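Notes taken during the Thursday session

The instructor put the following on the board and asked us to keep it in front of us for the whole hour. The protein is Peptide/nickel transport system permease protein. We were told not to look anything up and to reason only from what is written here. First, the residues (328 in total):
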Amino acid sequence: MNRAWGLLKRRLIGSIPVLLIVVVGSFLLLEAAPGDAVDAYVASVGGDAGMIEALRTSWGLDASPMTRLAAYLWALLHLDLGHSVAFSRPVLDVVLERLPNTLLLMGAATALSFALGTTLGILAGARPGSARDRLLSIGSLALYAVPGFWLALVLTIVFSVELRWLPLSGMETIASGKTGIARMLDIARHMVLPVTSLGLIYLALYLRMMRAGMAEVWRMDFTLAARARGIPRRRIVLAHVARNALLPLVTMLSLQSAQMLGGSVVIESVFSVPGLGRLAQEAVGSRDTPLLIGIILVSAFLVIVINLLVDIAYAVLDPRVGASEVKA
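Then, after some discussion, the predicted structure tokens were revealed:
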């Protein structure tokens, strides 16, 4: 527990400059892009020069970029992410409204890819070089090479358009009036295709990593000694080989969290899931800089939290990691 707490403090302190760099870098990049929220608004509804000037003053866009950046950082110290010009609501309220949908999609896809990928990796690595190993390795490579949007479209055509087994898009049935368990089942039914589309891509990665890790463990001395003592192969696979090959996959969970968050942007757009990815797409279209920075900041914080949880899990699984972190 002391190791985990020491690691937690170090990671939290180290995350502060990371978030600061994310905010400042995002602001400067968005400022370098042509146009602003007023230009996007006028392009859609029209307006004269007086209206444009009034909007710039009202939205605070008449000040210099450095002045607006300083004002934003000061507001951020008070946990104020600004006001969305597209939704006319506080940015934090808009982001928190969409965040649970993205967390549900990412969490379910991570659980699917990790559990199924690890299981198939154990089956492939149990007998390296066998026909089963070759078949699973080739299948995982082919699956990893498939673009996420293409896989999502194929699944939609097959299971929603042709077979009509699953909903085409959305998070739940609109105006269904369902509550409790009935609503949960309706949401789960709508999430089958998005979760499968996002999870299958990373399933292939975990499968190949697990298989490669087991192939390395098979050559280690303690595994050879266990085989020489006549221990049953299934016990060696589960108690020795798979257990030692599993630790690098915990590290991969943290490395893949940012990529999965980026992949959810495409999946949410294809299936019209109202999450952070689709919200970011709407913010870009309306040039809503405060909302876009808020989304980036919350996403960065989410990745930091996921990495922190994985680091704690790693320290619990391997005490040497936690001890070295605390001493450092």
